[in-house]
UniProtKB/TrEMBL annotation:
Signal peptide: none annotated. Residues 1-260 form the Peptidase M14 domain. GO terms for molecular function: metallocarboxypeptidase activity; zinc ion binding. Keywords: Carboxypeptidase, Glycoprotein, Hydrolase, Protease. One of its GO terms (cellular component) is extracellular space. Gene3D superfamilies: Carboxypeptidase-like, regulatory domain, Zn peptidases. The active site is at residue 230. This is CBPM Carboxypeptidase. InterPro entries: CarboxyPept-like_regulatory (IPR008969), CARBOXYPEPT_ZN_1 (IPR057246), Peptidase_M14 (IPR000834), Peptidase_M14_domain (IPR050753). Belongs to the peptidase M14 family. It comes from the Eukaryota. GO terms for biological process: peptide metabolic process; protein processing.
Amino acid sequence: LKGRDLWVLVLGRFPAQHKIGIPEFKYVANMHGDETVGREILLHLIDFLVSSYSRDPVVTRLLNNTRIHIMPTMNPDGFEATKVPDCYYTRGRYNKNGEDLNRNFPDAFENNNADIQPETQAVINWIKNETFVLSANLHGGALVASYTFDNGNSVTGSSQGYSRSPDDDVFVHLAKTYSANHASMYKGTGCDNRQTFPEGITNGYSWYQLEGGMQDYNYVWGQCFEITLELSCCKYPPEDQLEKFWRDNKAALIEYMKQVHLGVKGQVTDKNGNPIPNAIVEAKGRPHICPYRTNEHGEYFLLLLPGTYVINATLPGFRSMLKTVEIPDNTGNFSAVRQDFSFSEVSIRPTAAASCPKIPLYQELERALSAAVKPALHILCLMAILLGMFQ
């Protein structure tokens, strides 16, 4: 960075620190410095939330039950470098070093050899130090809500032109939540006749393949569901249009934040009631390639749509504990269903955080699956030969 800080404003009843049971949410804008609408509407959002607290019951309950982090600009150098506003593209897209920050994160599918930039590293550290549950990053140049995965391989079905995550149903819901509450995104007309997005949403890979993107990094390594919001056909519109952009997005921004209360949350404790960090807690049938683990307070948060799920809490080296949970739509109550796990026979001292390797994990999984398939193919070939001999 050129001596500029990345500023984050934290809003909530307890803004200074994480409180047990209160999920963490974030909005990030302007990672492409010439895409300015997100930067401006997040400043409007901050003003609206602060001025509406204790006056608006929805905003009040949202802030009482959520810790909201807002980063209006991830690329202040690129923004400052955009001297001549343009609807399509300027060099201000990149940071001071000429790097695209949304191609700069570790990738779960390919070796991303880009030098990690200071802005990227700052966001990686931020994700590591907070228990983010839900997020969105705000862009310009299209009008659509795009969701994980942005990259893919045969494991995620990319050969069919769609890269599906284990939580695809939740991501579709999240994208539709924003689109349906936006003034026009839900119409799906896009920005020209060549590009349409049914219901105003798209799988990232289906739109175009992207390596080193921030939303995939959040989901795989940050245990945080993130979608990408393209909010304006014009990347850097005239100043007199900004008020309309705020009005068009206001309801969607609020409704999307409420989705951080989907699903189930809880604590994993030992026989003395002490929290157990690094326990694996996941819904049966949807394992993450980097297992989702409890934080230092023994907390977990899983975004799940209404339904019946079996939640599996596992302590490596000990047994697993399964609990069936009925999940209603609790977003209006501003609290996910609570389901705690107590390992009464275990007494555990806190351990160092379990790290997930930054190698392309899905590439490794693809290799492992292909190695497992080869013996099966050999057996099939041998059977075919034997059948031919005996016929």
